[in-house]
Amino acid sequence: MLILFKKFKYLIIVVSLLGGFFSHVNAAHHERNSDLIKIEELYKNWNSAVEASNIDGYVASLDENITLLPPGGPILNGKENYRKFLGPVFESATYKLEEKGSDIEIVGDLAIVRKRTIVYLTFKEGVQSISSGGALQENVTDSNYFDILRRQDDGSWKCLVHSWKVISN
Questions:
Q1: CB–CB of 165/124 below 8 Å?
Q2: Residue 148 and residue 104: Cα distance in Å, rounded?
Q3: Whole-angstrom Cα distance, residue 52 to residue 96?
Q4: Residue 130: CB partners within 8 Å, gap ≥ 6?
Q5: pLDDT, tens digit, for every residue of 48-80?
Q6: For a disulfide at 88, which of 24, 29, 73, 131, Cβ 3.0-4.6 Å?
Q7: Model confidence pLDDT, tens digit, residues 104-132
Q8: DSSP conformational letter for 138
Q9: Which residues contact 27 (CB under 8 A, 6 or more apart)?
Q10: Which DSSP category does 1 fall into?
């Protein structure tokens, strides 16, 4: 009887430890899902801002310390420099985006986002190019985007580094 009691006691300890472990795993899984939802919402709002030529909406998606690394253009740092870059971009053309898939990896308070997007650009009447260095210039651009996002103090996500590589024009 004593041996049976000891085995039962160990079984209770093992079950308790496993319960705690699976509870932790479940909480981490829930947090990841919550983060993925927030990141998807960030991109939904960002894309809507691009398609509406809404500079304030676009800039709202950016971390204060944003770095823009456009292929063939100058590196820009900070929200206000990015805002200046966007002025000619939205004054000169309108945009339609077609998302072709993404991969999101969350590492602590950073997220690495790789996505493929086709951008359809329509120049406004009388405009033939965009004066912002590094801005897209082709009517159709298929690109692989690479972003690093940072979790903000309020739990939301914003873009810290934004770059892309053109696949084809």
A1: no
A2: 10
A3: 9
A4: 88, 89, 92, 93, 136, 137
A5: 999 999 999 999 999 999 999 999 889 999 999
A6: 131
A7: 999 999 999 999 999 999 999 999 999 98
A8: S
A9: none
A10: -
